[in-house]
Every structure is written in structure tokens, then in C-alpha cells.
Amino acid sequence: MDFDEIRNAHDETRRAWEANARAWDECMTDAGNDFVNVLCWPALERLLVVRVGQRVLDIACGNGLLSLRLANLGAEVVGFDFSANLIELARQRTAPDAAITYHVLDATEGSALENALGGRPFDAALCNMALFDIADIDPLFATLPKLLKPGGIFVFSLTHPAFNNASAVHVAEELDVSGEIRTVYSVKVGRYMTPYQARGLAIRGQPQVQVYFERPLEYYLNRGFRNNFVLDGFEERAFPPNHPQGHPLGWGGKFSEIPPVLVARMRLPELGVK
């Protein structure tokens, strides 16, 4: 995409999240859904290894769902989002004495991030299920090394680019397996390698469709590698076989062999280490 296309898509994305903020907050509350509680949070918590007193940056924090969990682990949390409506809802959900500060900031504006957040460095940064909502992730990846301590980590989760992108279709087929008729569940994917935009719903019934920026996994990892990060933690997350299906062909136990989410940890070198 050229500059104008990126800005137009970015502006459309912001308008959608402003319009959908209330519906998102009412759906997620501070409890989360199955994607958060079964797939994302257990892996995020393992890879972050939060210790009391650490400073953690919650990127695209939304309604503060994970900021609250990080603070409950003893972290000093700074959360930001480009949606003023979501940040207002996050503040409403957060007790006045919580160790959380929220900002309305745009992840595509590296200089603004550095100016607002570049005082005391962070031990870790988190971005949960949001990088694919950001029109241009290059400024964020370039700015993070300036915000993190030497040896600091960046942990992010994604809808799995290979199996859970906008081209993916869930399929149920009857197959004869050694003389036994079984229903086999699979995912058919029509696009993966070339980045593209698609429009869809994060939650059923939201007021406005939103833009998804679909990219292959190498796109994300290479942004980290170019900015001195190394990959040192990685999990692909699938629902267990006994997990209920919210919808007949929705993500659940029937697709237990296919991960709809991945979680990665990238780390900066320690001071003096190249």
C-alpha cells in the first residue's frame, strides 16, 4: 500500500473502533471471552513472566481487560489505544488506586509514542490480538527498542495468519476412515503469502465493520528482526477437544488440531551484547 492507502485504511479503522467501542466493552467486559481466557492469556502470562514492580506497556489496550490482569500480577502498567472511546471505557473499569495509566495514542506514530512514553523504560510490552488491526506496524516495531530496557521483551498474540485469516473457511466433511464414517473438520485457506486488507466483524452485531490487515507470519517476525529483536518464545494455541462449540462451525473443540491463535515473544539484546 502507498502512503495515502495506508492513511485511508488507518482512518477507517479508527472510525470503526470508535463506533464499536461500546459493543466491544459490553461483550468482553473485564472477564474476557474464550479466545482470551483459553487461548491467549495463559500463553501471554507464561511468556511475559511478570514480576512485582515491573513496568509493562499494554499496546492497543482496548477497554483495559489485560491491563487490569497485569496490574493484578503486580506490574505497573501503561496502556494506550488510538480509540478515545475505548480508553474512556478502560478508565471507567479501572479503580482509582490501580497501578495503571492510560493514554490515547496512535501506534502508527512513532515520534508521538516516544515523546509520550519514552521517560522511564519498560521491562516488557504486550500487544494482544491487535497488530492485525494496525494499518502500519513499522513505526511501532522501530519505536519499541527505544521504550524497552536492554533485554526487554515484546509479547504479542495474533489470529493465526496461516489458519485464521479472512480467507479461511471452516469445513465439515463426512469421510470413510477405515470403514467408519466420520465427520472431519478442517479449514480451507485461499490466501496467505501476500498482505491484503479485508473487512469483517470482530463480534457479531457490532455497529460497523472493521478492517483486518492480513499478513504472513514472516512479515511480523521480520519487523522484529530488523529492529534487533530475537524470537525466543512461541506458542500455537488451539482449543482442547472437549471445548464447546459456540456455533456449529465456529472455533472450538471440533477444530482442536488447528490453532486459531499464536503467541510470540521477541527479546532485545542485553546491554553490551550484540
Question: Any overview of this molecule?
Answer:
- This protein has 274 residues and is an alpha/beta fold.
- The chain has one domain (3-162, 193-250, 258-267): Rossmann fold (3-Layer(aba) Sandwich), CATH 3.40.50.
- It contains seven helices and eleven strands.
- It has helices at 3-28, 34-48, 65-72, 84-93, 110-117, 138-147, 217-226, and strands spanning 55-59, 76-81, 100-104, 122-128, 148-159, 169-177, 180-188, 196-200, 210-214, 230-237, 261-267.
- The strands form three sheets. The chain has a seven-stranded mixed β-sheet, sandwiched between helices.
- Helix 4 (84-93) links the parallel strand 2 and strand 3 (100-104).
- The chain is globular, with a radius of gyration of 19 Å.
- The model has no long low-confidence stretch (mean pLDDT 96).
Give a concise summary.
With 274 residues, the protein is α/β, with parallel strands linked by helices. Helix content is 32%, strand content 28%.
Total individual domains: 1
Helix amount, in percent? 25-40%
Shape: globular
Return residue spans where pLDDT drops below 50 for at least 5 consecutive residues. none
Tell me the CATH architecture: 3-Layer(aba) Sandwich
Number of strands: 11
Mean pLDDT over all positions: 96
Topology, element by element:
Layout: H1 3-28, H2 34-48, E1 55-59, H3 65-72, E2 76-81, H4 84-93, E3 100-104, H5 110-117, E4 122-128, H6 138-147, E5 148-159, E6 169-177, E7 180-188, E8 196-200, E9 210-214, H7 217-226, E10 230-237, E11 261-267
Parallel strand pairs: 1-2, 1-4, 2-3, 4-5
Antiparallel strand pairs: 5-11, 6-7, 8-9, 10-11
